[in-house]
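Methods — Computational structure assignment.
A single polypeptide chain was analysed. Its primary sequence is given first, followed by the predicted tertiary structure written as structure tokens.
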Amino acid sequence: MPKLPENLNPIRLVGKVLRDGLQSVEGALRDIDSVVADIDREVSPERSAPPVPEDKISDEETLRYQLDLILDDLQHLETEHLPAQGRIAGKVCDCIAKAARDLRRHTRETVPIAARQGRDTTLYSQVAAWAQEMVRIGTADMVASGQFDEEYPRQAGVASVLRKAFEQLAAEVRPKGFRETCAECGAAEDLREWLKRKKAEGG
């Protein structure tokens, strides 16, 4: 049998095809890897970008927020629910107990926040205990019984005293240079000075 030329040898031809195919596959894999890397950078830029530091609220800012909540709770009890003897339009409701529950929760929440700053937490605990008593005597059943009708206005006076004490606490944790706008005259004044003025006026 005559010998085939080298360029027509089937074994060599198959080997060449396999080598060429392998090179093509390797090149395609490199192209795929490059495309995947480009897509990954576009879809997930945070993997290559430096992490952004979290903007966390400070304990002092949290305390100011809590004091605002407590002042609102006391204001509602002082000027609305207790003077109205737990009634809306003359009808019995559990508004005293509801407002007192909010006050109890907010003062208890504030104890560890104030403690982390080395502040005295006695007043918060005392007000939480007072709020618990308002919850007890402020339910709809207790209001309907009429046995606390004279007590509710007296407790409104207690709420007033507590509100003023918490206004002083709020003044102490306001940011430096804080200016409060007076609702009566529209002028801006320091809240601490406003409290002193109100105290001098007997308010």
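Note: Strands lie at 87-88, 91-92, 180-181, 188-189.
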